[in-house]
Design goal:
Organism: Thermorudis sp
GO molecular function: arylformamidase activity
Pfam families: Cyclase
Number of helices: 3
CATH superfamily: Putative cyclase
Helix content: 10-25%
CATH topology: Glucose Oxidase, domain 1
Order of helices and strands: EEEEEEHEEHEHEEEE
Radius of gyration: 17 Å
Distance between the termini: 19 Å
CATH architecture: 3-Layer(bba) Sandwich
InterPro entries: KFase/CYL, KFase_sf
Number of domains: 1
CATH class: Alpha Beta
Protein name: Cyclase family protein
Shape: globular
Amino acid sequence: MDVYDLSHLIETGMPFFPGDPEPRVIPGRGAPPWQVSALELGTHTGTHIDAPSHRFPEGRAIADFPPVHFVRPGLVIPVAGLAEDEPVEPERLEPFLSRVRAGDAVVFATGWERYWGQPRYFRHPYLSEAVAGLLVEAGVAIVGIDALNVDSTVQGTSGVHERLLSAEVLIVENLRGLDQLVPGRRYVFSFLPLPVRGGDGSPVRAVAWESDGGSP
């Protein structure tokens, strides 16, 4: 079985959202001969998942969801060709809506991962609030994107987070490797987080594998 890795490496010097804790991997200095390194991370470091409590203090934290919630069938929506800070509008989603099922993970492939580590990565495309509304109406469980943010980082918006998280649709950001997946084909996605008590999110090791038959 082919398992596709959709996560960025966690390392010192990696990109992080402005204002978040700076990630550091500190080499181990355990008692010889053992190596025990230290990690300094935010809950939204690298490829990560947002819980409702990321935006709403009364919302559920990441450890409040059972592990099965993070393993979902779903599909990739291709939205390449967008300009800097350009929204994904409903017409890019609508051709695939008939294949989206309640409980799915829906992942948007902007191609912006190619700018990882460059200043342009922070001027990424983002989802429109209209698209977020369609996804909530479709009953999806998780929405992902291969960019820093489902909202506009340039404009500092938060409406997409608010629309999704208020409906308990979890958000995965900073995906990579979506070009390994066939647009519109059904896969199983795993976005398992660390079980952080009270956590508003967590880094994940995002992977996907082909669903039975892979057909819509």
